[in-house]
Amino acid sequence: MIYGTPEHKELFCRFFIDTHRPFRPEELPWPDLGPETIEKLKGFPIWDYAVHTERQVFLKLSAYSREEKDPLLSEALALQAYEEGRHADILKYFLHRYGIPFTEMPEKRLPKNLEWCFMSTGAGECIDSFFAFGFLEISKGSQDYPLDLIKVMEPIVQEEARHILFIQNWLLYQRYSRPLHLQPVHYLQTLYAFFESGMSRLMDLKNLGGTSFTIQAREHEKSSLSPKDFINLCLNENKRRLDAYDRRLARPKLIPRIMGAINFFL
Ligand SMILES: [Fe+2]
Ligand SMILES: [Fe+2]
């Protein structure tokens, strides 16, 4: 597959549209939870932030999809926006269902450069998903939460796998459909987007009690895995979750490579 060609665009947009699963939050197989589990979930400090983040991504991506002139790209972007909005709705449904209190944070004004915005939220999503895939696997093995509740999360996490696959191919499409001399600029912008998102997550880790979803979740999970085993698990899970999709689509490489390199020194 030659990236940046109309065939490439057709491939990654069609893959995304064709693998979309229509469902409503209330149709998911929500289990009955005991008071102990609900208390534990109430203690999670991330709910306000998680709902707010998904909602913001929905708004930014919807606006960007309306700005995109290409009808197929616009359709795929609008669908990803819809799925992000559905993530917010699923979270809200879950919180209401189990009586977990949360406060809706006010919506922020949309940034001017929506393409950069998608690049930057996309980079963040690649980082978060990498760890979330490993984290979900650990949760399945631990007795911390009922397996039925983790199973409800499964299609949502797989949706994030589709998102990062779409984002990676969208990035390559944007880069290689540009004139040759502008491609390095796009590459540097992409690196910067990843650097910025990575730094903001590291800052969260530093000021424990920060807001990053991944890191907070990881903090709450008393896993007995060593960092090296955890990274290996994430690497395997990333590969496994993306294996199902068309081989011609480019896989996200940057985060797996960086984490692979870190693992080499651990
Ligand atoms: Fe999401
Ligand atoms: Fe997403």
Please tell me about this protein's structure.
With 266 residues, the protein is mostly helical. The chain has one domain: Ribonucleotide Reductase, subunit A. The protein contains 10 helices and no strands. α1 runs parallel beside α4, α5 runs antiparallel to α6 and α5 crosses α9. It is globular. The mean pLDDT is 91. One fe (ii) ion binds next to α4. The site of one fe (ii) ion has 3 residues, from α4.
Key terms:
single chain, mainly alpha, Ribonucleotide Reductase, subunit A, binds fe (ii) ion
How many β-strand runs?
0
Count structural domains: 1
Q: What would you say the CATH architecture is?
A: Orthogonal Bundle
Instruction: Give the helix level as a range of percent.
Output: over 70%
What Rg is obtained from the alpha carbons, in whole angstroms? 19 Å
Strand content: under 5%
Q: Structural class, judged by helices and strands?
A: mainly alpha
Uncertain ranges: none
Biggest β-sheet strands, sense, barrel: none
Number of helices: 10
Would you spell out the secondary-structure blueprint of this structure?
Layout: H1 6-18, H2 35-42, H3 47-67, H4 71-97, H5 114-141, H6 147-176, H7 183-206, H8 213-220, H9 227-243, H10 254-265
Residues 84, 125, 160, 163 line the site of one fe (ii) ion.
